[in-house]
Description:
single chain, 987 residues, mainly beta, Maltoporin, Chain A, 22-stranded antiparallel beta barrel, four-stranded mixed β-sheet, 6 helices, globular, Plug_dom, Beta-barrel_TonB, Plug_dom_sf
Amino acid sequence: MNNKRSFKLSLISYAILAGVMSSHALAVDGQSEEELEVIEVRGIRASTEKSLNTKRFADGVVDSITAEDIGKLPDATIADSLQRIPGIQIRRSAGEGSTINVRGMPQVTTLLNGEQFLSAGSLTKVQPDFTDIPSSLVGAMNVMKSPTADTLAGGISGTVDLQTRKPFDLAEGFTGAASIEAARGSYSKETDPKAMVFAGYNADKFAVLATLSKDEVTLANYRLGATNHGWVGAVPESGECWYCPQTDMNGDGDTNDAEYTYVSYGMVNRFTERERTGANVSFQAQLSDTFELNADVFYTKMDDADRQRGLMADNAWGGHWQWQDQHDPINRGEILASGHSLYTAQDITLNAPRVVAHSESHTNKRKSTNYNIELVYQGDGPFSGKMRFITADASRSHTENVAQGYLTNGLAHGLRRNEGNGPIAVNPGGYGPNTVPMRFDFTGKYATLTPPSSLQGEAFGSNINRYSVTSTYSENNYDEDASLDVLRLDGEYEFDTDHLNAMRFGVRFSERDISRDQYVLLAPFNNPVGEGSVNVMWKDQGLAAFDTDGSGGTPSASAGDLTMGHDNLITFASLPEGWVQSVSDFGPNNIGSIYFIDPKQLDDPFAFQNRFYPGNVRGMVPGSSYKVTEQTQSLYWRADFSGDNYRANAGFQYIKTDLEIAQNVIGDSICTNCPGTVAEDAGDVITDKSFSDFLPSFNLSVNLSDDVVYRAAWGKTMTKLDLQQIAGGLTISRTRAGDDLADREGISPDLLIATNATMQGNPELNPWRAENSDMAVEWYFSPSAMASIGIFNIKLASFIESSTWLQAMPDGDEVIRREVTVNGLVNGAGGTMSGAEFSYQQAFDFLPGMWSGLGASFNYTYSDSESGRTDLDGEALPLEDNSKESANAVLWYEKSGFQFRLAANYRSKRLAEISVPYGMGDTAIWTEPTTYIDISASYDVDDNFTVFMSGSNLTEEYETNYAQWKDNRISQNIYERRLTFGLRARW
């Protein structure tokens, strides 16, 4: 695309022009130096005072967190620290805080030192994955809940500004700091190292600093229960669906009922390894009395591997939906459109046609580098200004690799192999031919999936000769690359009048490019009895790729065709030494030992797949590969006012966005009837999309007394589109038909039938847009104490929501036989979010003696929302991932070099997702309330050395999900307690 080059040439031209006009640029510093106290920050009390000082003199509704020392935020991660702010809720990845909501909404933009940046963990979004960014690189964080005209628009409910340290803020001369620490998890039992080093030098006219951080972590996070919330059905007894014959499942003498069931249940041992590197280098120089030069480099790199070993019982992902016997079922009434009474149960016997020892590895290699250079002008006259240029690049490589170790022999769901002597069990040594009774029980604290204590004369799973690698594949792999260029010019003109203080104005030009290439691994299979070769993704030993017996139709072992594994039975016992592990660690549960392939062997998909099926190549998935160029041009104007007892600002920001979306036209399958394949790339379709936003804003701060501040704010907001949501394509999910459906529809049991589809992108989506209003009263009754109460309202003019519809989709032979459910994103309108926030902080320095070191803080947020959707009972549903109530409580102590901090964070239940099961309407998947408790302590040995410890998730809090009804729990995510010990030094 040529517009990339032309844009960069334009940036150069504007930069030259800006150099000529630099005397008319603006320094956009939100508070004047006269108002802000200069506070040297070290320790809990000083951090609290600095944060309150920032909040008090902010231009709008702002909350702030300041590092307690060089390289030390109050909590272990950026997101964990942010959750202490009123209205902030976080999501976790492997137990670590990863993303945030502000006032219940994830449409939050995050800036780096006041401008856009690239985070490799979320290249298509404006909110980063905070697990990418070492917390030691950040010196402060401001959460701006009301918009101002000069702050880059991009967040509906708020904007987070991560601020790195500036060299001129250091004391003159050399400043150094370093820390080393070791952490250990209660489940992982691994000792994880972390180190940070900081060096800075301030020579008055120039200064430089550098921070380097390196850490490795191993995080335990188990998954118990339903393995996939989307694969669920309300299975009717009447046989009115393609996956269910007429059957009296509960034995009550009629076929008027339906049972709620999932396709798969499991106990998953999951460990995540992360290796993080971060660096920040900053330089400042006073070029003259009027010019200052600032330059920054911000670098992050993270390699991670999410490795899973799970004992899973499922219905073979086919037509075996009537596979459960419910114990003590609950009749939910006739809530289905079909009129059937729906039954759910927490204690179920699963008559599993398939039980597998599932091994899976997801790997990521993420890297981003952000460069910033700015020239600041501050003369003696009324003009001041800044010219700023940013360039960044980032990349992410993601792989997924799966190995299915069958314990069952496959006959219970009709999966056979043919080695030339007719069809036999696909896993000859496995349990069978009958289904395996697996007990799923969620009546206790934790979900359990218990196999029979003995089967066929032995302890279930104890005999390694029962296992074989029946299926393996690698899909959902992708490479993403992104770049960002920004040129920003700002100007300010000060007025010497009683009320009008200044006018601020500026223009900004940016371009963001993202490309995504998604692929699967395809192995070549040659016709064993003739000519021809096909490339196959699902290397399943029970599936055939060729019509080897000449009978025609879909290749099938049952029809006499040789299967792909006809000469390659891969038993666990035949694998290299060290590849197979006996595992009994399933978190809080003990279900005995099961053999698994070590998922570390799957980290390299090519090496693993080629060992068993040589010659794998990348097969591009055209529907999920794309390129997007986003160009924005914006300008703003802002007027600042003040009087004896008030401060205010009013203005607007105008943004024009141009998108060029290059998607691939999906052609025919490269191999009809092959066991997993991809479509041809039939060319490109280019969509051009443009839209403009005019965003006025107003902020008022009135000093009701020397210590009491009243605030009011109003503004319009918008957030940039997630580029994945507009550029992704259609993905059709298919599974093997199985014997039952084959008999009913007259098709091969090995035909891959369409079961559902996902429309991953919609170029017609519009940005989220809203109108926000705030009012608050803040009482600062000491330098380290504050109480505030505020109310807010977010009226959504447009938003993006998920939707479902029925659409005809082809089976693997490209014949359309049925309509399936399609999930996708559409434009919505009319949602609201409103609520109130209360906050209290105080250092009890008025107490006598040792008690004067005490301090506390507490905040509570109530945020109610409406999405416009209703659940099965007709109840209104909120916006997804919003907790109506959240709260934080912190008790701290700081005296004579000793520091202690105990913190608790509470979230009420939240809507995790909306599932649309087969045969049902919108089913709400809720996450139960959670409370996380953390602790930290430190002791200053002397002025240079501090020993410290911390503990996160002390109570081993976990997440439990339930479907529609509180007593219909379906899954859990189990997180571990982590303890850290370390040493910090400073010079």
